[in-house]
Amino acid sequence: MKKTNNNNMIIETSHANTPTWKDLQVHSVLPEQLLPLKEIVRNLWWTWNEEAKALFEVMDPAVWEESDKNPVILLQSLTKERGEEIIKDEYLMSRLQIVYSKFNEYMSEKPTNGRPSIAYFSMEYGMTHVLKIYSGGLGVLAGDYLKEASDSNVNMTAVGFLYRFGYFTQWLALDGQQIARYEAQNFGNLPITMVRNDDGTPFVHEVEFPGRNVKAHVWKVAVGRINLYLMDTDVESNSDEDRSITHKLYGGDWENRMKQEYLLGIGGMQLLEKMGIEKDIYHMNEGHAALINAERLSYYINEKGLSFNQAKEVVRASSLYTVHTPVPAGHDLFEEDMISRYLGNFANKLGISWQQLMDMGRENPGTNERFSMSVFALNTAQEANGVSLLHGRVSRSMFQPVWKGYFPEELHVGHVTNGIHLPTWSSSTIKSIFNNHFSDTFYSDQSNLDIWSKIHDVADEEVWKLRMILKKRLVDYIRYEFKEGWLKNQADPRRLMTVLDGVNPDALIIGFGRRFATYKRAHLLFTDLDRLAKIVNNPDRPVQFIFTGKAHPADGGGQNLIKQIIEISRRPEFLGKIIFLENYDMRLAKRLVSGVDVWLNTPTRPLEASGTSGMKAAMNGVLNLSVLDGWWYEGHRDGAGWSLTDERDYEDQEFQDSFDASTIYSLIENEIAPLYFDQDENGCAHGWVKYVKNSLAEIAPIYTTKRMIDDYFSKFYNVLAKRSKLIVKNDFAKAKEIAAWKEDMVANWDKFEVLKVDYDCEQHANKKGVKNGLCGQVVIDKKDMKGDLGVECVVVQYDSSTNKAEFLDSYDFDLVKEEGSKLYFEMHESLHNPGLHQYALRVYPKNADLPHRMDFAYIRWIH
């Protein structure tokens, strides 16, 4: 109502503006006796310590569940009354002291002497569902690797991003359409600590971007003994565009991706420099981190006074690039104008031309190709590796164009097969077997097959019982956790009850959980719905399938696949027999890989670089049914799981899919289900348990991050560290020497002259007694060239119809005489492979100080 005074002024009876609400977090104040809890929850050591997690749960079971098992929120919510109750509870306090003592004992161990120190860079890390800075396998692998580095006493520091929204939370609409929701993380509720200056103010890391400085807060995540530093640009003094750099993982356009990779590489290295952290080896986990070497080159040039070529020797000698992508299309490529916007000043910093800088990211220098972060990483790192045996081969073929004149089989690109962190992914139930039947040294000696072989001494009934316990827990989890979501998505609540009642712990349960990219072929199982219906509705051998996974928000094909599976699952014959669980994360993954009976994996070969979910399943006594791709190509053992052939029967992918689907159906019908349901009067399937034991004894030990990190040291870190010390010794003397040698080689490469090539093999064979062989003489005048040359004969199987040559072998000529600038080479080699072969000769630079031929891949074919 309005009132009017004598001056005819209208006075509003109500007037208020809109308030701006700000967060005010009121935390509980812990009594002194409970302060150790604060120290424990701020270190992710608790994520792989069963006693710590059990302690959190009993402190306040209701809050533990309500907080999604987040111990930080648990402590913040602890009431004064409950705190006093805990202090008076002698049993609880004794448990706290035990856990705290173990934590302190663990943390007091120092890094192992004699091992190189490592700086590790990754776009994502998956260590706990509480900290949402991961999307899938790449991040979980990185998180597992940090945990293992801690357990193995490695001197390592890691760098990444703290995402405000992280990766999306998956919701499913009534029609099965995926809805991606980005939910902001409250950093105050996370097990992280802001890095601060000595005066207590936040440490602000400023990174020079085009036309401005971008500011980032820095947060420390304690992963056991390892520190992970996360940059966060959601700072008020940044522009809205720059604040969003670290909002979403793999979100935004290519410009934002460029910003992220610039910040991770350039900003990440500058962060370590500001914090005074220097390591022996710099490890790029995928091409996202490639620009660390642009910054490192700049440092050695502008701070240490080296030339570009000298600096490159130093940087390469201490760099490792790990590729996780099996196809060229999966690598980040940026247009030249975008590279120019962000790296435009780097050519001057490095003392090279713009064209030379761009060419460092091109397979074909001198062209207009886009800039590849992967190629840049390869050109600035001495070593590179794929993440499985098969992926190593695929990567050599994929990267061959970078080193023209060499065949994929000759490349230096190696492999370290991924692994999983055993204490994280083994359920508490399966750990009881480890603790009761394996030796005390088990966790520190996880690759010891003799220890794992003790599983054969465990009674079948005990193994079967533990497997059934895990299965029942999965079923209970599904019924409890997903009831609310299913009510939301079911038009008919009665259908929900049918689904819940249909989840049968007595059925053979097969799980499928992974990113819903089309090459993963989640649709394969639904190729023949009539046959599938018979399998799931078999009254004597019932089978159920559980699917879960997210499709990238931009991947319409993957989203449609999810929708298709949900639609099929609602058909009467599949209701309760085929189930899709939404929002696949680390918590759900652990339930699935420990609770199902069989883990299914059906990628299009060879598009699975490694895959680790099957390893997690194997670690829990779950059997694998998979295409022979990724890790399973080398991991499969007869009598310990099942495989689809690695041979391609049809060029047409649709025909191949039908064939593979039929193979899966047949395996389930004729081998897997009969083996599972061949149970004795007590319900124990002894034949099945034999497979489980074989899997645990022969497969599980090989696919831990303990084996993985040991491989990285033996294959790469130690090799790099040894050579790097040589390169930097005596004020970079060797780096300068090698750079000068290469510069001379480049200047004179086109000047050396081939004076003689003699293939009179019959004449030489008679002299040397060589038959069925290669013989010859080569004379080269190297003119003013100071360095040495090598000559070799390359033998191939050449197919003129396709103009392709299959590499068979190479044979070096012996340098038998030098006269001035003239070099005389001879070769007498017997060949053992019968058949018609082709050969050609090539000349290459020769220097014992090079780590491998790809380090300086100059080639001249001669006739």
> What is the 3D form?
globular
Using the CA coordinates, give the radius of gyration: 31 Å
Mean pLDDT: 92
Largest sheet: 10 strands, mixed
Query: How many β-strand runs?
Result: 30
Strand content: 15-25%
Class per helix and strand makeup = alpha/beta
| Alpha plus pi helix count | 31
- The helicity comes to 25-40%
How widely separated are the two ends?
Answer: 103 Å
Low-confidence stretches: none
Question: SSE layout and pairings?
Answer:
Elements: E1 2-4, E2 10-12, H1 35-41, H2 50-59, H3 61-66, H4 71-76, H5 80-88, H6 90-108, E3 118-121, H7 137-151, E4 156-161, E5 169-172, E6 178-181, E7 193-194, E8 204-209, E9 212-223, E10 226-232, H8 240-243, H9 254-274, E11 281-285, H10 292-302, H11 308-317, E12 319-322, E13 333-334, H12 336-343, H13 346-350, H14 354-359, E14 371-372, H15 373-380, E15 383-386, H16 389-399, E16 414-415, H17 422-425, H18 428-437, H19 449-452, H20 460-481, H21 483-489, H22 493-502, E17 508-513, H23 529-536, E18 543-548, H24 556-569, E19 578-581, H25 586-595, E20 598-601, H26 613-619, E21 623-627, H27 632-635, E22 641-644, H28 653-676, H29 686-698, H30 705-748, E23 753-758, H31 761-768, E24 773-781, E25 788-799, E26 804-812, E27 814-819, E28 822-830, E29 838-846, E30 860-862
Parallel strand pairs: 3-4, 3-11, 4-10, 11-12, 12-15, 15-16, 17-18, 17-20, 18-19, 20-21, 21-22
Antiparallel strand pairs: 1-2, 5-6, 7-9, 8-9, 9-10, 13-14, 23-24, 24-28, 25-26, 25-29, 27-28, 29-30
Describe this structure in words.
- The chain is α/β, with parallel strands linked by helices and 863 residues long.
- The longest helix is centred in the last third of the chain and has 44 residues, at 705-748.
- The chain is globular and about 95 Å long.
- The relative contact order is 0.08.
